[in-house]
Amino acid sequence: MAALREEMESIAQNPSGRFVRTDIEYVKVVAEAGGVPVVIPPSVSLRAAKALLDSVDGLLLSGGPDLDPGYYGEEPIPGLGTTIPEWDALEMVLLRLALKRGMPIFGICRGMQMLNVALGGTLYQDVPSQLGADVLNHWQTTPKCQVTHEVEVLDDSYLAKITDRQTIEVNSYHHQGIKCLAEALTVAAHSADGLIEALESRDVSERWLVGVQWHPEGMRDSGHRNLFKAHVCAAERHALRRAAA
Ligand SMILES: [Mn+2]
């Protein structure tokens, strides 16, 4: 069900069109980790979303535009970026269904923020205007493979185990951030300014929920690759459990 085209090709063929597309790095890293990547298009019905989830064993929520703050009970502030209602609606449906099914969920950037909001947490709609001068620059303009800041990984976290790192060098493409963390989640890493840069469920072996604020699909270090391998392994375990039930 992948609806993917190389961007340059699409634009050349139809300069005014809108396309279903995702960064091909997501597809590549999931495949390299041993998974079978399936790209889900927006604007599918609830029935179709359920059917799609029946056919996969894990959910990866990618980066993307800002989430409508209505999902965490706030009115938009001036610093809020573009929101895409059909994207929000689809991902929230998929996320809630996947949570209900106990499916492993890996949230990247916007995906991590979605996971927090779906579980009852809230976001800073615009970190620079809400937290001001005390924060690092989290908005890099260089390619994904380049490092913008470090994150400190919490010693006893699942993230520390999976990446085998105490600090991780990361890229950074977010102007939003976690404000209140959902009760079901715990901090796995933060940047020097105190922003939450990674989160996970309280017992990952019981419920595989992991989110990172950076884009590991674009980083070369093996620690980042391990996140995708761990997600694929969790998806395989979920498939086995489902088959046995
Ligand atoms: Mn950052």
How far apart the termini lie comes to: 26 Å
CATH topology: Rossmann fold
Tell me the number of helical segments per DSSP (H or I, 4 or more residues long): 8
The average pLDDT value, as a whole number, equals 92
Strand residue percentage:
5-15%
Please, could you describe this protein's structure?
Helix content is 35%, strand content 15%. The protein has a single domain (7-244), classed as Class I glutamine amidotransferase (GATase) domain (Rossmann fold, 3-Layer(aba) Sandwich), CATH 3.40.50. The chain has helices at 7-13, 24-32, 46-54, 85-101, 110-118, 127-131, 158-163, 222-244; strands at residues 59-61, 105-108, 123-124, 149-153, 167-170, 177-178, 185-190, 196-201, 209-212. The protein is built from eight helices and nine strands. The strands form two sheets. The protein has a seven-stranded mixed sheet with strand order 1-2-9-8-7-4-5, with helices on both faces. The chain has a two-stranded antiparallel sheet with strand order 3-6. The protein is globular and about 50 Å long. Strand 8 and strand 9 form a beta hairpin. It is of the alpha+beta class and 245 residues long. The two termini are 26 Å apart. Residues 138, 149, 172, 174, 191, 197, 213-214 line the site of manganese (II) ion.
